[in-house]
Specification:
heterodimer; A: 97 residues; mainly alpha; 0% strand; B: 210 residues
């Protein structure tokens, strides 16, 4: 990979790859060189890290929000499941006779 | 991907742990086919299960169906659950797997209604020229920002949404995702890069100006 010819699109892909593990030395060097000369990609990388941290924490924060909003749905699903479980138990009893 | 007691740190910490005795009694009840145990499962974990399913399936009915599918899977597989593993993590994986099955098999539906919630990802949108003023902590603490992120995820094309969820939200490792989705590593990397870029640009108007 030629550091002098790394496009912003290529840099964006490497920034994403870097979030999933280490880059190969030549990739890291090419990205570093590009970032040194491209403030837009530096901002992109900073925002990519912010988004990644947000997404990683999303599940934990989400449940507190959805619990009250979904209480009716949860109750209905629970009732449907109970009905299915009782039906299954009844079938097992019939089969055992 | 089969239900596994192992998962990424985000998954493991996503569901509040309950005392081991509570978990054991719940699992025992489920093994007996006790209907009350299923009610308790929903009461304690239902919101989480539905929230997880909804990430993958923007249409609520699809998400509800996936939760029901997960329950059927759970009934069939509860006998294989090892008591020393985390039940909540295992349950989480059951729901993710059921959701992925729905994603793969459901008939495609137009998701135009989502456009009313948030503009779809615009590949032609300009990249940000300034660092976001919103931090990750703020994004997680403010409900309006959380909802915006969720809506942005749901608005992503399925091809991008699912890898993003599995990697960045579920924090599964790359090899597991490749296997689960049946794609190669380079394809996964490309989709993740596009998904992240689209979501960033989608969030830019708010996160850049909040």
């Amino acid at each position: 990979m030629d550091a002098n010819h790394l496009t912003c699109e290529q840099a964006e892909a490497l920034i994403s790859d870097s979030l999933d593990g280490g880059l190969a030395p030549e990739q890291q060097e090419a990205l570093d060189d590009h970032l040194h000369a491209c403030p837009t990609c530096v901002v992109d990388m900073q925002n990519a890290v912010t988004l990644r941290m947000t997404l990683a924490g999303l599940g934990r924060a989400e449940v507190a929000t959805v619990r009250p909003l979904m209480s009716d749905t949860i109750q209905r699903l629970a009732a449907e499941t109970r009905r299915r479980v009782l039906e299954a138990a009844e079938e097992q009893r019939r089969a055992a006779r | 991907m089969k239900p596994s007691p192992t998962a990424g740190p985000g998954t493991a910490g996503a569901i509040a742990s309950r005392p081991a005795s509570d978990q054991a009694s719940l699992v025992e009840g489920l093994r007996r086919g006790d209907a009350l145990a299923y009610e308790r499962l929903y009461r304690d974990h239902g919101a989480r299960m539905l929230a997880v399913a909804r990430r993958y399936l923007p249409v609520m009915q699809d998400a509800e169906d996936a939760v029901q599918d997960a329950m059927v899977s759970l009934v069939r597989a509860i006998g294989t659950f090892e008591g020393n593993a985390s039940f909540t993590t295992w349950l989480h994986r059951v729901v993710v797997n059921a959701s992925l099955m729905r994603v793969r098999t459901r008939s495609r539906r137009p998701e135009t209604s989502l456009q009313a919630v948030v503009e779809g990802p615009d590949e032609g949108a300009p990249r940000s020229s300034a660092r976001w003023s919103v931090t990750a902590s703020q994004a997680l603490e403010r409900e309006d920002l959380r909802q915006l992120v969720l809506a942005g995820i749901r608005a992503l094309p399925e091809t991008y949404r699912v890898p993003l969820l599995l990697r960045d939200v579920e924090e599964l490792d790359m090899a597991t995702i490749c296997t689960g989705l049946g794609v190669g590593l380079s394809t996964l990397k490309t989709r993740l890069s596009r998904a992240r870029a689209l979501l960033r640009r989608n969030l830019e108007p708010t996160f850049g100006a909040a």
